[in-house]
Amino acid sequence: MEHSTTALYTAVEALFPASPFTSILTLKRRGGVRVAGGATSWQKEQISRAYVHAIASQGGYTVGDWNVDKDGVDVTLRDRGLMVDIQLKCTESPRTVRGGYSFDLDVETYDKLRSTERSAPGHLVLLVVPSNLELWVTQHPDSVVLACHGYWACLHGREAAHSSVTTAINLPQDQRLTVKSMRSMFDMARSLLLTGSTVVN
Of 142, 133, 147, 144, which is closest to residue 25 (Cα–Cα)? Predict the structure, then answer.
């Protein structure tokens, strides 16, 4: 076990050779020994929220968190009265397809997010994280690095699912979640508001 832990630190140091790091995540302990542990669902949820908050802050957008996921929404972005609803998902083992990723979203949530009877268009955001929890976040003297990347898909106005359980949502690699892509989400929300359209172009 000690050998595997040493190997882990060696691997991380290889990623960041110019600067010492300190992990700011707490690892699970087994028999008093620090070991790299698997992530729980709430840890995945929290890193997803942190990721969205960081990007939204850079773009000057505010983020509203929902304690109850009743409407298929985890967070809502706001920009001068415009709103964008987001369902967050996080995985360490994404299913890759040509040109991006695919995620099986439950149909109940899918139907809520694709509905045109919403004041804010619904989106799915998929965050991809390392399988090793300790690699998620590293702290350097002058920075904190999030070793994850997110992708998004607008579900507003999509057709009904063919299954009653889950439906596959494609998230292209060129649809990275960035400040620029958040701006595109708000542009679409503005367009829907001004035109009264129920269809995404």
Answer: 133
CA–CA separation, 158 vs 186, rounded Å?
A: 18
pLDDT at 5 over 80: no
Sign of the Cα torsion 103, 106, 110, 112 reads: negative
Report how far apart, in Å, the C-alpha atoms of 159 and of each of 42, 75, 116, 199 are. 31, 23, 11, 10
What is d(CA 9, CA 14) in angstroms, rounded to the nearest whole number?
9
CB-CB contact of 121 with 192 (8 Å): yes
Sign of CA dihedral 35, 39, 43, 44: positive
φ, ψ of residue 48 in degrees (nearest 5): -65, -45
Q: What is the arithmetic mean of pLDDT over 119-143?
A: 95
Give the list of residues 6+ apart from residue 50 with CB closer than 8 angstroms, or none: 146
What's the average model confidence in pLDDT over 127-144? 95
The whole-number average pLDDT for the span 11-39 is 47
Closest CA to 110 of 159, 46, 182, 177: 159
Strand partners, 78: 62, 83
What residues contact residue 27 under an 8 Å CB cut-off, 6+ apart? 34, 35, 36, 37, 133, 134
Question: Measured between alpha carbons, how far is 109 from 96 in angstroms, rounded to an integer?
Answer: 22
